[in-house]
Design goal:
This protein is of the alpha+beta class. The protein has helices spanning 30-43, 69-86, and strands spanning 10-12, 18-19, 24-25, 27-29, 91-99, 110-118, 123-131. The strands form 3 sheets. Strands 5-6-7 form a 3-stranded antiparallel β-sheet, with helices on one face.
Length: 140
């Protein structure tokens, strides 16, 4: 029996993609819509949205910081509060912030792993946000 998850919502795919032939925007639903919402929330800086200046996480302020316990706690707190206020469909179980130690990558990259539950379906999910400054990775 197929479970209907319409209450989880439907929204634009992020980044937005358009179907030129049909003249429509690609949409995502259910758990994928929650993941897209988390991606938007974590990639938005405070003040970036004109009508919602408190929306976002300001992760850009931490990208070149040494990932010490103080910065990790600060990032976790920012993410936890942003989700609490702007993504009411989920309950966060755990947040981990770890550096990406891949030798071929530049410094200033870290991973944010979010374990969360959708209370209405009692489903558990993991979301990984790979944060780095895009401008730092472009060739000169």
């Amino acid at each position: 029996m197929e479970q209907h998850l319409d209450f989880l919502g439907t929204g634009w795919k992020f980044p937005p993609e358009f179907n030129k032939d049909a003249g429509t925007v690609l949409l995502v639903s259910d758990e994928q819509d929650i993941n897209e919402s988390l991606n938007i929330l974590l990639s938005t800086s405070l003040g970036e949205r004109v009508m919602q200046p408190a929306y976002g996480c300001n992760l850009a302020d931490s990208v070149f910081e040494t990932l010490n316990p103080t910065i990790v706690g600060y990032i976790k707190d920012r993410v936890q509060n942003a989700i609490l206020f702007y993504e009411p469909r989920i309950v966060v179980q755990n947040i981990e912030v770890t550096p990406d130690d891949s030798p071929e990558l530049l410094q200033g990259r870290f991973l944010i792993r979010i374990e969360y539950v959708i209370p209405e379906t009692n489903s558990r999910f993991n979301y990984v946000y790979d944060y780095y400054k895009n401008e730092a990775l472009r060739p000169i």
